[in-house]
Amino acid sequence: MFVLASDGKGACTMLTPHGAVAKLDKAPVSKTGDSRFESWLPRSPAPGYLVREYNVIDIEATVEIDRPVEEVFAFVADQTNAPRWQTDLHEVRRLTDGPIGVGTEHEFVRVFAGRQIASRNRFVEFEPDRYVAFEIPEGWLTGRASYLAEPSSTSGTVLTCHMQFKVRRLGFLFEPILKKVLARDSSRDEARLKALLEQSGT
Fold it and tell me: Is 106 strand, coil or helix?
C-alpha cells in the first residue's frame, strides 16, 4: 500500500496494490521496519497536503546542427513548431499576442499512454538567438525546461535541451518509467530536429 495524503485529522488515503483508492481512519503502522514505507506516513500535514516528496526528473540532451545559431534558435523558440519534431506532441497553440519573449504562454496537447493531456507553459527567461527557458506551473507534470543555442566549431549550432520535471498526483507511480521515456524521446527528438533543419536548409 502507498500513503498518498492526510485529511489533517489522522485519516489518510491509501492506494492499494490493485490501484484502488481507500480511505482509512488512521495512518497504518509499518510492522516491517521498512524506513521507506515509514517515510511516507503523515506527520501532521495540513488537510489536502500531499505527503510524499517528489524526485526531480533531470534530463539534458545536446545535438550539433549544421545551421546558423539564429535559425536554430528561432525555430525551437517558436513552440508552435514543436509538433513537427517532438514525440507525441499533438498540438501547440500560442495564448499571448506580440513577439516571443518573457511572459509568452502556450497551451499544448500531448499524447501519453493513449490519452491526450493538455497543459500550459510560460516563458520565464529569453535571450534572443541564444537562450529560452519556460515553466510548466501546473498539472500532473510540472517543472522547467530550456534551450541553449551556441556556435559550434564548424559554424553550425550546438543546441542543449535541459529539462527538470516533477510528477504530481498519481503520476509518481510512473516516475521511473517516465524518466526513461523522456530521456529516450529527448534524444530521438533532437535527432529529428537536426534532420529537419539540415534538410530544410539545403
Answer: strand
- Residue 14: in which H helix or E strand, if any? strand 12-15
Roughly how many angstroms between the first and final C-alpha of the chain, as a whole number? Answer: 57
Write the pLDDT tens digit of every residue in 9-23. 444 443 433 343 444
Distance CA 119, CA 172 (A): 17
Whether the full predicted model's pTM is greater than 0.90, yes or no, is: no
The residues pairing with 2 across neighbouring beta strands, listed in sequence order, are 15
Classified as helix, coil or strand, 34 is coil
The C-alpha atoms of residue 124 and residue 103 are separated, in whole angstroms, by 6
Query: What's the mean per-residue pLDDT of the chain?
Result: 75
Q: Radius of gyration over alpha carbons of the chain, in Å?
A: 21
Name the strand (E) or helix (H) holding 134. strand 131-136
Using a 10 angstrom Cβ sphere, with 0-12 exposed, 13-18 middle and 19 or more buried, the burial of residue 83 is: middle
